[in-house]
Design goal:
Layout lengths: L8 H9 L4 H9 L6 H7 L5 H13 L3 E5 L6 E5 L1 H4 L1 H15 L11 H8 L13 E7 L8 E6 L3 E3 L9 E5 L1 H9 L4 H6 L3 E5 L1 H5 L1 H4 L21
Helix pairs in contact: 2-6
Length: 234
């Protein structure tokens, strides 16, 4: 990578951290807890495998990431070093700043349902659900056929693209923009439910408790926005 030729600490950090895709790789490691190569790549689906491998090697060389043998002996995992762990709050604060001042509301573009569901699987509040296996079927109106149905199996948080065959406890129907906007805090869940932009079908208790167990983005959904970027209310 080409350096800035400055002794400034910010310049030297930028040489490592601002390479294309590197901040998102660190986001997956520091903020979503991904460890395996395939899991990291699911968080950056437009990034090629070869480039992801290259960025992970660069982060290893910089002392931010280390590769460890998995406990079952099947392959390896990527873990943050103490230097990498210290970046977690830094990247979280960058995200909060961007949410407040830069990010466009979801309704301006079509979100990636695969990426949304990969993240949603980590924010469902399993302690608000009955014990035992739970299957939530998410159906997206207007999405590409291969990205219109997802089955989330809890408590393992396994995300499936085909029916796992355990039976469905509740089905959540929405369009990609609405569910993403709710999860990101652009649209109030109560409004989406009232307008039937999100429809629920299944066990009565699960339908009634949906607002309690469907977790929103843990960092961004509660960020206050300036008047220049109002929230969507309808």
């Amino acid at each position: 990578m080409k350096g800035y030729g400055q002794f400034c600490a910010i310049a030297q950090a930028a040489e490592v951290l601002t390479e294309r895709w590197t901040p998102l790789v660190i986001r997956e490691l520091a903020l979503t807890g991904s460890r395996r190569f395939n899991d990291i790549q699911r968080g950056v689906p437009l990034m090629s495998s070869s480039l992801l491998s290259k960025r992970l090697r660069q982060l290893e060389q910089a002392g931010i990431v280390e590769r460890r043998q998995r406990s079952d002996g099947k392959g390896s995992e990527y873990h943050l070093t103490p230097a990498g762990e210290e970046l977690g709050p830094v990247f979280a604060q960058i995200g909060i700043w961007s949410e407040r001042w830069l990010r466009r509301p979801i309704f301006e573009e079509m979100p990636d349902t695969g990426l949304l569901m990969w993240w949603v699987r980590t924010t469902v509040k399993t302690d608000a659900l009955p014990t035992g296996r739970m299957v939530i079927h998410f159906r997206f109106r207007g999405a590409a056929a291969k990205l219109s149905n997802f089955w989330l199996v809890l408590p393992e948080a396994d995300l499936c693209l085909s029916d796992p065959g355990f039976g469905v406890d509740i089905t959540v129907r929405s369009d990609p923009k609405t569910l993403t906007a709710v999860w990101m805090g652009d649209l109030a869940l109560a409004v989406a439910l009232s307008n039937r932009d999100i429809e629920l079908e299944g066990h009565r208790d699960l339908v009634r408790s949906f607002p309690k167990w469907f977790g929103l983005h843990p960092l961004f959904a509660s960020v206050d926005h300036p008047s220049s970027r109002p929230r969507v209310t309808a």
